[in-house]
Amino acid sequence: MPQTIAEKLFSRHNLAGTQVAAGDILEARIDGAMVHYHANEPMHDLALQAGFKDGLPRVWDRDRVFVLLDHHQPTLSQKQADENALVRREVDRLGIRCFHDSEPGIAHQMMADYGLMRPGELVVGNDSHTISYGAVNCGGIGITRADMLYVLLFGELWFQVPQSIKIVLNGRQPNYPIAKDIVLYLAGKYGDDFAGNMSIEYAGSLVPQLSVDSRMCLSAHGVEIGAKLAMFPFDETTERFIASRTQAPYEPVIADPGAVYEKEIALDVDQMPFVVAKPHQFGNVSPVAEVAGSPIQQAIIGSCANGRFEDIEIAARVLKGRKVARGVRFILSPASQQVYLQCVKAGLVESLLESGAQVVTPGCGVCQPKVGFLSDGESCITSTTRNFKGRKGSMKADIYLAGPLTVAAAALAGKIVDPREVFDAR
Amino acid sequence: MHANLQTAVRGRVWKFGDSIETDAINPYYRYPTMEELKLHTMEAYRPEFPKEVKPGDILVAGRNFGCGSSRPGLVLREVGIVAIIAESVARLFLRNSIARAIPIFMAPGITGIVEDGQLLEVDYPNRIVRSPASGASVELRAFPPLIEEIFAAGGLPEYAFQRYTREVRGS
Question: Do A226 and B64 touch (CB under 8 A)?
Fold first, then answer.
């Protein structure tokens, strides 16, 4: 029976050793567990609650657990500092070897930076955007903190094999990143759960032209369209990316010809307009033209969706020799220390600072109400992941989601504009 | 206290729309303690909810309930919600609810058979949800045996404790 990527991935990891198909329930062997800032819960709080008197008694494999204190680094409160101290003690007690403690950044980007997830693996994380690992053909799946306790103990977890949806992207990569526009456009057209519980497989003539940065944006946003997996095919781009980060062996996961897809949709990106998601849902999408002229007080580039080199580079290119509009706070947060360093070395940070932008510590803060709160009546355009009511503080503020070019153009203009008014988009 | 899937419940309905996100259900960034959360859960959609919800009430929602970040809906249980029934549930919210033994059901058609404030009967043992007012009902799909076992244990951490204890004793 020909298999999709998801069916092959789960068959390969099925503890029972049998082939599985969409709809089957299985217990799967886990290759890697990414535990981020809420590590105190599976390691300690939930363990006590479950009956383990001294906390989690063990981890199943000390080399396959990756603990990163991303959301809480540097700490913004006493509570965070105390939680981090607890995690440090637990990591030490359990003998976990891979611990990124004093390094700010987004866990998912650090997993990529340090080659901690590889093609063909099944890697879980207690964060919804763990799905982003599909960008490098790795089966990244977001789980819950309670699931993580089970994984840490046994290296196993139950799953239902998802049905698959093929998203065929055709067209040409223009001179700016378009991944965000693609996923917003699709969410607007098909709804914010059109890939609900499914495994996305990206295909089409655009894919070989997409950078790993763009692929990570598309895969990360799999969760905003409901997906369980968001997988890119393994190709030369993946191979180069992995080879420069890890020498550990791996086996890519490739769909069979004739595999069965529940749905297939196609998009010609050459015909796609610039789009924004209006307040307060991801699928509330319209062409930029419809909201052009709306004033903004804050613009943000960052997050696990769009805080990578190419996202910051396009902002620097748009603003080069120009100034952020008066009255606009333009905040950029590189996704990790490695991304930050890359931006510094390329001169992007100097250029952005000269234009009046703020570059803040890498991490998840700009995507949550932690860094850059909004007040009542304010509007923000952002390349981060979510625009729910209150996501940036006030329940009476408006959040628009857009690609990094559209965000940078708005920062320059002080209002939402068609980016072609300020940038030679080709 | 965990909920028992095997007991039918009857309660007053709070009805919500589509794509209700975990930021609204569990806005813990603004309200870090459970006591604060209880005063603010779901207020983004219905400000009266945290003030007027009563123990025994039932939450009905449209498609994609619990989308967004991976956050449990424990606060809904804390304010007294005894069952959640939605047209569809976002996968991480479903996983969270199973792992914490919060009764949650996907029942396509549910929003068509009951209005806000009406009574609803949720009878998982007989695989049915029924509106006493109209007599209309929709079917509840059975969970796989593994999921029923997790509910019976009181959640996945408790299930893990049972397995670990069994294996360590057995070795």
Answer: yes
